[in-house]
Amino acid sequence: MVKYIVRRFLELVLTIFLIATATFFLLEAVPGDPLTARADKLNTEARQTLYARYALDRPVMERYVTTMTNMCKGDFGESFVYAGQTVSGLISSRLPVSARLGIQQMLLGVTIGLLLGVVAAMKHGSIWDYLIVGCSVLLISVPHLIFGLLLQKVFAGDLGLYPTIGWPSGDDLWFGGWEYTILPTLTGCFSYIASYSRLLKASMLDVIGKDYILTAESKGLSQFAIITRHILRNSFIPVITRLPMSVGMCITGSFFIESIFSIPGIGQYYVTAVNNQDLSIVLGETVLLSILYIVILFVTDILYAVVDPRISMPGVQSD
Q: Which residues cross the membrane (predicted)?
């Protein structure tokens, strides 16, 4: 077990290093730089001072070594567009916003999706099955942008039940201001409902026909016990495989949802940073989100063995 964890940790470090390196040189390959618009309004001396401040007057390899060294110390540099603001500060102020929105979307969407998947599988061929599948296809086919605008018009505009835009801040950042979070949460949870209900239904139908399910039925086990102990447990492998992508998406935020409801999250700011060639922001967010996603993948590997004892990790002896 220890050897497996150490090996995976070294792989994580190497992967993050390669991602940071590739991102740095890809950003350097983009024509122009983030200071061009500001530098055009300055005289020669002021322009040189500006470029020296952000080290853009140095050779690429020198800046690469400096950037990688600083990142190892936890310093991701200063924003090129927002002078005086550090990358770490901007991310720490915006990431909790996207995290709360994404976590609420995922918890609500995945929970409802799994419940509907169970119903569709156990009522296969019935009106409930067709209704759930039809709704899933509809929900996954309509973009977030359409759902957001529709909910905003009906519940915020016509009925006036919820605010049109905004997001809780300060003491209410995590557990307050629920009226601001309802519509964005509903907008983002529909895709989770659609994908997880269809995924679990297909996985359960594949398991239901197995011999050990027939054996459990012949032993006189109740339907509830068969579903919870045998069918669901063996059907969750595809669900767990999909969870890392969902967790990564829920943390990084949704650009369209954050734009529609004017939510100051990291998703909207990341796209803005790319458009503005804010190199430090793009590099810092890419590396930090890569670390998050890779750690989630590592945890998922462990969950495989928890859900299905037949799966063993390399280097770990199974009973």
A: 9-27, 102-121, 128-155, 175-194, 243-267, 287-307
How many CB atoms are located within 10 Å of the residue 278 CB? 23
Sign of the Cα torsion 225, 229, 234, 236 reads positive
- Mind listing the pLDDT tens digit for each residue in 284-314? 888 887 888 788 777 777 666 565 555 555 5
Q: What H or E segment, with its residue span, contains residue 268? A: helix 266-275
For 101, counting Cβ atoms within 10 Å of its Cβ (0-12 exposed, 13-18 middle, 19+ buried), the class is: buried
Alpha helices in 56-177, H assignment, sequence order = 60-72, 87-122, 127-141, 144-151
CA end-to-end distance (rounded Å), the chain: 14
Whole-model pTM? 0.74
Please state the domain extents for the chain: 99-277
DSSP code, position 171: G
d(CA 271, CA 276): 9
Report the CATH superfamily, name and number, of domain 99-277. Answer: MetI-like (1.10.3720.10)
- Is residue 86 classed as helix, strand or coil in its secondary structure? strand
CA distance 80 to 86: 9
